[in-house]
Every structure is written in structure tokens, then in C-alpha cells.
Write the C-alpha cells for this entry.
Amino acid sequence: MMIEIRDVRQNANEYFRRWFSDDNFDLFVWYNPEETIYGFELTYDKAGCGKAIRWFVDSGFSHYRVDDGDQSSFSFDIPILRLITEGGSEMAQVLSRFEASDEEMPIHITMLVQSKLREYGRLDS
């Protein structure tokens, strides 16, 4: 079950954001000044290779995998997101897991994220 992380650091020159998390997902949601959702980032497969799907009103979808870089004890690499073009086919599984985790989240967020996962994965409603 996803819980909201309180007191999320807000970055200057960015819209207000909220953060929800559980063992499978991290969901960041940005709100524009009109207090409607501007976009979101859903990270998933946290125990595996890690991936993220983003959607924003003005730019649409982007899909990423987490690149941990060189993880040797002599390296100071930080994880970065690398754009991937495949992955829509796994959205049915991501959507199913998300629906099982979203029961405590505000309905306007769950509805939007579910809708966008269906759209990206080209899944029937």
C-alpha cells in the first residue's frame, strides 16, 4: 500500500510536488499553480533493474531505466535515468500492481495514473 511521504522538499522553479511510496513504487506528482496535475513520474521494479515512466501535460510520455553506473568501491557514480523506447508491453503488469497498491491515494491521482498507464501500454479500459 502506497503511503504519502510528508514534508517533501520543494525545488525552486518547479511546480509543487507530492511523493507516494511503497516497496514496489515511488510516485511523484507535480501540480501547476491552478492546482491541477501537471505531470507524474512512477518508478517501478525497484527491487529489479528499476524503471520509470513519466507523463507531463506539455511533453507527453517518456520511459526510462535506472543506470546505477559503476558501483565499485572506488566509484562515485550516482544513478541516472536512461531513455528507453520499448516497455509499453509491460504496462499491463505495472498497472495491475499499481491498482493493488493505490487504495490509500487520492482518487484524482489514481484515476489519472491508471488512465495514462493504459494509454501508454495501449491497453483497453
Remarks:
- Residues 77 and 87 are 25 Å apart (CA to CA).
